[in-house]
Structure formats: C-alpha cells, structure tokens
Design brief:
The chain is of the alpha/beta class. The protein has helices at about 30-45, 60-65, 70-75, 95-105, 115-130, 155-175, 195-200, 220-230, 245-250, 270-280, 295-300, 305-325, 355-365, 380-390, and strands at about 1-5, 20-25, 50-55, 65-70, 110-115, 135-140, 180-185, 210, 235-240, 290, 330-335, 335-340, 415-420, 425-430. β13 and β14 (about 425-430) form a beta hairpin. It starts with a strand and ends in a 6-residue tail after the last strand.
Length: about 425
C-alpha cells in the first residue's frame, strides 16, 4: 500500500482547509486522543481555516449542531475517556450527510469507526466522487475488538487488554480467597476474541479462554472445571461475549439486530454462570462463583501512553494524506508501516486464527485442550504448528496471518486512491503503482 507521511506537493493550499471530524459506533480508549491530534496537526502544520466536530455520529451531519474545534478546546482531551463529540449507531442517511457537508463548505472529512462505519465512509466517498466534489474522505479504524482486517492493531487495544488483565487478576484474588472459588470474566469480542486471547496470554491467572472462533463442548468444559476445582480448589475462566453461540442460538431463527446492523447476542456470561452452578449443584459440591463483567469500564477509560502515541501517528498521517489530495482511504499500520488503505478493503471482520501462533500459545500454556475445545486436545498444538511449516524466526505479523496481503511485493495496480491535479478543477483517480512494503 502507499506509505503514509507528508508530501512535497499539497492539493489544499494552507489556510483554506475546512475539516469535519466525526466518531461513530461504540466508544474505546484513544478516541479523544485521535480527535485532539487531528485538530493539532490541521491547525499547526497546515493552518486550517476551521475544524468542525460533528456531534453524535452520522446523524450529526444533519441532526445536530456542529462544534468548533480549536487547539485550546481539545488540548486536554487526551486525558479523557469516551469521545467528547458524542457517538451513536445508525443514522446513516447518505444524501442528507453529503448535503450537510456541502452546507458547511467542508473540504475534508475524517471518520472514526469500525467496519460498519467504514462501509458508510466508502459510500460517502463514492457519492462525493459522483457529485464531482473536491472533498477528501478519510477513515481512521476504531474498534476495541481489534477486528479490522489488514492492520496490525487498532488504537485503544493495548489499553483494553491492560484493563482486562486487571479484571482477571481481581477475579483470581477473589477465588483464591474462598473455598472452591470460580471466577468468570466476560470480555468484549462480538465476533473476534482478540481481547480475551491477549488478556489470557498477558496474565498468568486465567485457566480457560473461550472465544467466538473456537467452538467448545459444554459437558467437556464443565468436566474440566470439576477437575480443576478438585485438584486446585479454584479456577478463572475468560470468555468473549460472542463465544458459545452454537450452544444458545436457534439456527432457524434470525437474531435481532441493533441500529448498526450487528446481531444482538445472547448473554454467554449468564448462560455459563447458570450452567456451572447447576453442574456443581448436581455434583453436590459447594462453589463460590464470582461473575465479573468489566466491559463498559474497559472501553470508557482514557488511552495509555502507548495508545496515545499510536493515536497521534495515525491522526498526523491521515492529515498528511488528505492535504496531499488523497481520498477514499483509511489510515492503518500494516506490518509496522503506516499506510493508506482503500476504504473498501477494511469493511470485513478479522478473526483469530485457531491454528495461528497466538491461539496455539494459549492452548499450550494453559493446557486448555481438556476444556472441550474442538480439535484442540493436549498434544495437538505442536503438531498443528509443525503442519503450518512456520519459520520460528518469521515476524508475528507475517503475510501468512493476513492472507489478503501478497506474500511477495508486486505492483499494486488494484489499489486506487483519489488524487486531484494541484492546479486542475476536475477530479481524477490515479492507480498507485508503488510496490508492496
């Protein structure tokens, strides 16, 4: 992909930029940091005429008053959790959104959100191109689940994992302090279990990890819990919110959806809590079960130092790309390089690879093949790694883990980014012929 960074030639002359920033979907650590750095870069690097904050997601383009964002106003926003602009799900009305952009005479739009938000951003980009407007449409990936494809990670993920580890350690303290204690920690992860996986690896207290990508058998899981209680007297279970759907959902019934089009999931945490209690009651074993759901506490905290720095780099590179005249891209870190990725390449969901290194490390470390994981019996992890024929010294983020990236550099003729002639009046699309990273 095209590398991010400042360019020698600018499409937008300094002091002519009128930018709008919007946050959509759920909150996560680092949103305010990205907003702050967008404003700072636009003002101090390119002397933007004005920067607007669009309130409450996509519906804010036509349904709410816009904010004037200045360096003085946003100066301390990186210390705050959530988003000071507000957010919402749904509200996507393409004609009214573009009309609102035109009404405010905006020529750059920065959209922070996940895969659904990026689908909307791509639609806005296509509508702007259709109307032949000189408006740069730029995305910045935002997802606490770290499930956007191609990119190494999303901002706020490191902070979320750290807070999840704190919750796991709290559960461990609780269950070690009582007889037959079982801690059940529910973490975010609707379709991807990255937070649960990384938190399990980062802590030494979790004894089982359940994620959406790997099915588990309830009787085998309960038997594993029983064996653990008999042998050690305590257990800590980490479960992602999208795990175990096959145990609770009727495949013949279409699940209801929220305003963003995401399915409303049954509560796996409550389901497992009741199943564990019922199992030990039948066995006439008294247990102390502690159910902890820190989801909203995790996503509402401010970003840590690493995520603040990452947010800054994403924001600055996004501004550099827009100022050079690029549009229809999102800013992402790919194989440790900041790149401009076409919006239509990040509208799907990335998942944990059950045969990938990280999940195999969880299985090998915790011995969780006994917990009923499909195809993950103890002893299979080494065979699976050998079957993948992975060089032990290869990078963690290798092309093998991201199949859509070619294994060897080739001319990226399929990547298109919008660019305008510095002195022209018509929009033209150029094909990026730069080679892979």
């Amino acid at each position: 992909f095209l590398r991010g960074g400042p360019r020698d030639t600018l499409f937008y002359p300094q002091k002519t930029v009128r930018a709008a920033i919007v946050t959509c979907g759920g909150i996560c650590p680092g949103l305010n940091s990205v907003i702050r750095e967008l404003v700072m870069c636009l003002h101090y690097c390119y002397e933007a005429e004005c920067v607007f904050g669009v309130r409450y997601g996509y519906e804010g383009f036509y349904g709410h008053d816009w904010m004037d964002l200045t360096p003085d106003l946003v100066g301390s926003w990186s210390l705050l959790g959530g988003t000071q602009l507000g957010t919402s799900r749904g509200g996507f009305d393409l004609p009214r959104i573009v009309d609102g952009i035109i009404a405010h005479n905006v020529n750059q739009v920065y959209i922070l959100g996940g895969d659904g938000t990026h689908r909307g951003a791509h639609a806005i980009f296509e509508e702007v191109k259709k109307r032949k407007l000189k408006i740069a449409v730029v995305g910045i990936p935002k997802t606490i689940d770290n499930d956007i494809p191609l990119i190494d990670k999303s901002f706020g993920f490191d902070t979320a994992v750290q807070k999840a580890v704190d919750a796991i350690r709290s559960a461990h303290v609780e269950v070690k302090s009582c007889t037959n204690g079982i801690g059940l920690v529910l973490l975010m992860g609707r379709a991807s279990g990255f937070i649960a996986l990384e938190a399990t690896l980062s802590s030494s207290e979790a004894n089982a990890c359940l994620i959406p990508e790997v099915q588990f058998k309830l009787p085998a899981f309960l038997a594993y819990m029983e064996k653990r209680i008999e042998g050690r007297g305590h257990a800590v279970v980490v479960v992602a919110e999208g795990a175990g759907l096959e145990l609770m959902q009727d495949n013949n019934v279409e699940p209801s959806k929220d305003k963003s089009g995401n399915p409303i999931l049954p509560e796996i945490g409550v389901f497992l809590k009741n199943a564990i209690k019922d199992h030990f009651k039948q066995k006439k074993v008294e247990i102390n079960l502690k159910y902890i759901d820190p989801s909203y506490m995790i996503r509402s905290v401010p970003a840590n130092a690493a995520d603040n720095t990452y947010s800054l780099l994403l924001a600055h590179n996004a501004v550099h790309g827009a100022m050079a005249g690029f549009s229809g891209f999102t800013m992402g870190l790919v194989n440790t390089h900041y790149c401009y990725i076409p919006l239509d390449k990040v509208v799907t969901t990335r998942k944990v690879d059950p045969l990938g290194r990280q999940w195999q490390r969880v299985i090998c470390r915790r011995g969780m093949g006994e917990a009923g994981m499909e195809g993950m019996r103890r002893g299979e992890c080494t065979a699976n790694l050998a079957a993948r024929n992975v060089d032990a010294l290869s990078p963690v983020h290798s092309p093998r883990l991201i199949p859509s990236i070619p294994a060897s550099p080739i001319p990226l003729r399929h990547i298109t980014l919008c660019h305008w002639r510095p002195k022209g009046s018509t929009l033209r699309v150029v094909t990026t012929l730069s080679r892979g990273i």
